[in-house]
Amino acid sequence: MGTGSSKEATDGGGSEGNKDRTEDDDQAADGGQLYVSLKMENRKLTGDLVPHVYGSLPLVGSWDPSKALNMERESVSMWELSFVVPPNHETLDFKFLLKPKHSDAHCFVEEGPSRLLIGGALGEDARLALFRLDSGEILEYQVFAKADRVSPFDLAASWRAYQENFRPSAARWIPDVSINPAPQTGGENGSSAGLELDLEHYVVPAPSTSANSGLVYAANMTENPRSLISGSGGTSYSNKGMEVVVPDSSKAFQSSRMVESKSVGTFSPLQKQDSQRGLFVDRGVGSPRLVKSSSSNIFSTGLNLETTTKNSMPAAAGAVAAAAVADQMLGLKEDRHLAIVLVGLPARGKTFTAAKLTRYLRWLGHDTKHFNVGKYRRLKHGANQCADFFRADNPEGMEARNEVAALAFEDMLSWMQEGGQVGIFDATNSSKRRRNMLMKLAEGKCKIIFLETICNDVSIIERNIRLKIQQSPDYAEEPDFEAGLQDFKTRLANYEKDYEPVGEGSYIKMIDMVSGHGGQIQVNNISGYLPGRIVFFLVNTHLTPRPILLTRHGESQDNVRGRIGGDTAISERGELYSKKLANFVGKRLKSDRAASIWTSTLQRTILTATPIVGFPKIQWRALDEINAGVCDGMTYEEIKKNMPEEYESRKKDKLRYRYPRGESYLDVIQRLEPVIIELERQRAPVVVISHQAVLRALYAYFADRPLKEVPHIEMPLHTIIEIQMGVTGVQEKRYKLMD
């Protein structure tokens, strides 16, 4: 039930003849005008009947129903009318009525006496508004009234802002979550908007830097060993665009460092410029400025940061940046670097989990690398090791495996000393002896968290084993699949004999989590922002195969005009794309009615999704386009002409540049983290209809693209990017529905 405004406002109302007015009420009336909002709510569909208000001065000035003021739809069930009441007319006499949307011929006036609005409050309890229709049916509306005093200056300023920014919206009445229960028929599926029966007709090549287009063994995408050098007489091994020579195992090895590109995901808060130190200060508008300060040396000493090594700060904004600064200032030295050490039997999803976690942390801005001990083993001892090599009672095999594990861990520590933040150490690490060795190596250098993956589902284990035989380099030269399968099962049995579950130190146990059907996660001695985010991410990941479709909205009116931001409707070409998209989704997902459609809250995405029927539609504010701040609605030429400094700042660093009173790409990534978590958690297909900057950031996550590339990723209109999630990793396919 709606209520009036505060007691002071209610007592201060009344007609001009009211004798009970106080001095404070007179000052309130002189200092501002009443801004009144009337609302009516009916959760039942009322067809074309639109609520109206009519009554005395100054609201309407006539009891003629033809002059009644129509209320605006605020949501699917709520209607609203706002108006300003001058001080000398703070008592209003009015009624509600219902009128057909397209006709003034007949209306329905509410039952009962007229309503009194006194000083912004209803003069009685806000009774239901009852309307008796010709059929005898009675419609009930709940009535709400709210009033605020607004100064004439604020009122004028608000009106100017409203007039300058008003854009008619064709989508505001659509609720945040909706579903069209039945397919539509008719012209919407006409030939102009129709699609070929074979969707493959629309497939276009993905960029060369896209997500994996084929099956790729996850361990092959990990870091190249730095401790192992090329030698004569070895065999070549190619990975990640570089060739490494596998030396002859009979020859001694010399330690050296391979040339490696620097990470693009970190920056130091204390940079040298003109031999002076300064702080990056984010002014909240535009790009960060390097401010030189005489006190910066004191600040640097307080942080106790070594100037000889790169500082492990994430390329991030918001909570991630705040947590990193806090860890630098308050945390232990070794806590500035984190090692996630995988533990588990073979074929339990360790490498898959490590790859997903690496991709997530990189996307958030943490400099993260994935070190796979199996890759080191293959490079040093060859890929064709039989199951006996992995027996616990084989001293030569144990020594060789511990040696490559130590080499990989030392490489990870060396990388951390250069500024790396999170290392993912991927191996079985199934015995306490091995884990104790790693903890001793890490003392005073990094914090270790063990991540144990346990799977008791026989069908999942069998599937993983078969994938291992098909994809692992260990069996690349084994022509007999069954022989390879038997060898791997023997290797697995050798590991099971010596397996000791984690019970020491800080650890996370994932028990039967990979299926996505429940499971259990156990944590011990886990604290801090980053470990907490890791646990939250792992809780929501699974291996269930499902597609995620990413697409921009149909062409908008601002796209045609070359203006950024805004909230305009879609153009004629955009409407055509929305119909083609509806046909595509209907064909692609017809067998999976559990799919859902996600849009932003901006009308160009909502309108693009409108023709899609039969699936739930969910609006996310997090999917709104990057906030261009004061540049919203401008063209880039206008920004260049009127704000040349901002234009140049953006051109120099599009990733970190923040529009005045707006956002940067790093800000967008931070607000998209809940979207990523939910996409990982979903087990059914999802169609994401959003905007260029937002989709660049989402795509960068799935394709594992460096942060510096995010603002430059190609994201064309009227194109669908299908990301296939599953046990084999991430694959991509693109469909172009319109030129």
From TrEMBL:
GO terms of molecular function: 6-phosphofructo-2-kinase activity; ATP binding; fructose-2,6-bisphosphate 2-phosphatase activity; starch binding
Matching Pfam families: 6PF2K, His_Phos_1
Xref: InterPro entries: 6Pfruct_kin, 6Phosfructo_kin, Carb-bd-like_fold, CBM20, His_Pase_superF_clade-1, His_PPase_superfam, Ig-like_fold, P-loop_NTPase
GO biological process, one term: fructose 2,6-bisphosphate metabolic process
Assigned keywords, A-Z: ATP-binding, Nucleotide-binding
SMART domains tied to this protein: CBM_2 (SM01065), PGAM (SM00855)
Region (Disordered): 1-29
CDD domains (alphabetical): HP_PGM_like
Superkingdom as given in the UniProt entry: Eukaryota
PROSITE patterns linked: CBM20, PG_MUTASE
Gene Ontology CC terms: cytosol
Domain annotation CBM20: ranges: 28-133
Protein name, as recorded: 6-phosphofructo-2-kinase/fructose-2, 6-bisphosphatase-like isoform X2
Taxonomic source organism: Cicer arietinum (Chickpea)
